[in-house]
Amino acid sequence: MQGPTGPATSVATTSPVLRIGGVGKRFGTFTVLDDCSLDVAEGEIVTLLGPSGCGKTTLLRCIAGFWDADSGSITIDGQDMARVPVNRRPVGVVFQSYALFPHLTVARNVGYALRMQGVPRAEAARRVAAALETVSLTGFEDRYPAQLSGGQQQRVAIARVLVMEPRVLLLDEPFNALDAKLRGTMQVELRQLIKSLGLTSIFVTHDQEEALTMSDRIAVMRAGRIEQAAPPDEIFDRPATAYVADFIGSSNFWPSLVADGRVSLPDGQSVATGLRGAVRVMARPHNLQIAPPAAGPWQGRVAFQRSVGPLVEYHVETEGGDAMVKVVAMRRAQDRGFADGTAVSLRIVDPALCAVYPA
Question: Where is the ABC transporter domain (predicted)?
């Protein structure tokens, strides 16, 4: 993986189940995927994360076989998928809408593909029962989709995939139809289920929190390319590019210049860097400390503050009015904090956690 000087991809440390090698895809003159490479190891959950239009769903559809890649290769267990039709690829797809048949019971929805493949009735019944038990839906066999909650419908969609015993599980924004509280619960449940089954999985989302919860690794995409692929903590704490730093979580950026291998920070501290010339410095809001006015170079005034559960988020206009800095602090019942308009001083808690990027 490259550092802050350029884009990065990451290769899994174990023998990959899924290997995406230099995949490209165009629609007319528009390039949707541009040289995407990614290895996914046995039992690993990798999330494709990025804004709408970045290519994440297109890449998932190429893996599934719904669309053909124009260049590069996709292999599963070493077998090139280029000439393998959709219905013969060892993948299972859970769609956003779940795509359940409203006129079929839960059991018949789950067993539909087995019937289409001519699996003997007794074997199909055994596999359907096992899949429903896995997703905790035993006893729901005779219900119809309209009689289920959103979370139960999602579990039916997952069970329908599990009966096919896929080598790779593909999930295309499966939480979109759920309310916020249920989304959080289902994220944890689904991750635990996938890990207990040891399924190699590709998860697609535009939601950062979802990606941080679900993933062993996150591949951040931008304009058809993978900017960085790494574990969630590394993506958050050591983003490889300014784009990743800006897209994941909340960030503060300042322009600066490198002098003798170090970059001066706004509070008078400095951080080492291998870059030269003009740079941008990034610090996360939780790496800043807000305090009453004190002697020091970094002074400001609270422009806006809001409580976010146990935290308080401050927007501080620094002296000169040339930058708005975001700071996050713990909210304490006995501490009224800093009201709007209050003069404050700022300090970077750990300069080593600041990232430096080319200007």
Answer: 18-248
The predicted-structure confidence for 215-270, as pLDDT tens digits, reads as follows 999 999 999 999 999 999 999 999 999 999 999 989 999 999 999 999 999 999 99
Mean per-residue pLDDT of the chain: 90
Q: What pLDDT score does 154 carry?
A: 85
- Helix, strand, coil shares, percent, the chain, to 5: 25, 35, 40
Domains and CATH numbers, the chain: 16-246 (3.40.50.300), 252-358 (2.40.50.140)
Q: What is the pLDDT of residue 2?
A: 37
Residue 122, SS3 per DSSP = helix
Q: Find the Cα–Cα–Cα–Cα dihedral 89, 94, 99, 100, rounded to 10°.
A: 100
Cβ–Cβ under 8 Å, residues 358 and 2: no
pLDDT of res. 335: 66
Cα gap 234→333, rounded to integer Å: 33
Joined together, the tokens standing for residue 314 give: 């401050």
Task: Decide: 344 and 286 in contact? Cβ < 8 Å.
Answer: no
Torsion of CA 269, 274, 277, 281, to 10 degrees: -50
CA–CA dist 111, 291 (Å, integer): 62
183 vs 178: CA distance, rounded Å: 6
List, in sequence order, every beta strand (DSSP E) within 206-297: 217-222, 225-230, 252-259, 262-264, 270-272, 278-283, 288-291
The stretches in the chain having pLDDT less than 50 are: 1-13
